[in-house]
Specification:
This protein has about 160 residues and is an alpha+beta fold. It has four helices and five strands. The protein has one domain. Helix 3 (about 65-80) runs antiparallel to helix 4 (about 85-95).
Length: about 160
């Protein structure tokens, strides 16, 4: 009896630990590679559809380091699946945060490897809240980040 109790106790703890390791995402971020040159119109990056889906499914209350991490992990895996270096995409996303260790006000929803001013970049769109009390993440930030220097070469945001 004692061995059975220990077995079921260990099994229960193991299942709890395994289930806590991953957040269930409400929507799927987009990662694509194109040869599009956004030099003349950087704001034309086509992120709106996935941005709207994230805005409908997440609020300021949902924002957390864990959610951001799970989304970035999914984006990393998607980049790898299409033959890109997911680590470079991760570093480009990380470059857009001034303090990586604080609870974020925004989460990435779209990443496109493309061209800007004759340079290979990642265009990264984010859903953002101006406060953690906002009912949706309808605001956006768009960053174009060099995939060789991780320098932000363009940035726009909504209020």
């Amino acid at each position: 009896m004692y061995k059975q109790t220990i077995f079921w106790g260990v099994l229960t703890v193991l299942l709890i630990v395994m289930s806590c390791g991953t957040l269930e995402l409400k929507c799927d971020p987009v990662v694509v590679v194109t040869d599009h040159d956004y030099t003349s119109d950087p704001s034309s990056v086509p992120y709106k559809e996935v941005h709207d889906e994230f805005a409908e499914n997440y609020s300021g209350e949902d924002l957390s380091i864990e959610l951001r991490g799970e989304i970035i992990k999914r984006m990393h895996n998607k980049a790898e699946a299409i033959g890109e270096d997911g680590g470079i995409l991760y570093r480009c996303i990380k470059a857009t945060y001034s303090d990586w260790d604080l609870r974020p006000y925004r989460i990435p929803c779209y990443a496109e490897k493309c061209i800007y001013e004759n340079e290979s970049i990642w265009a990264i769109a984010f859903n953002r809240a101006n406060s953690f009390d906002e009912p949706s993440l309808e605001h956006f930030d768009l960053f174009l980040v060099s995939d060789s220097t991780y320098e932000i070469v363009y940035h726009t945001l909504s209020y």
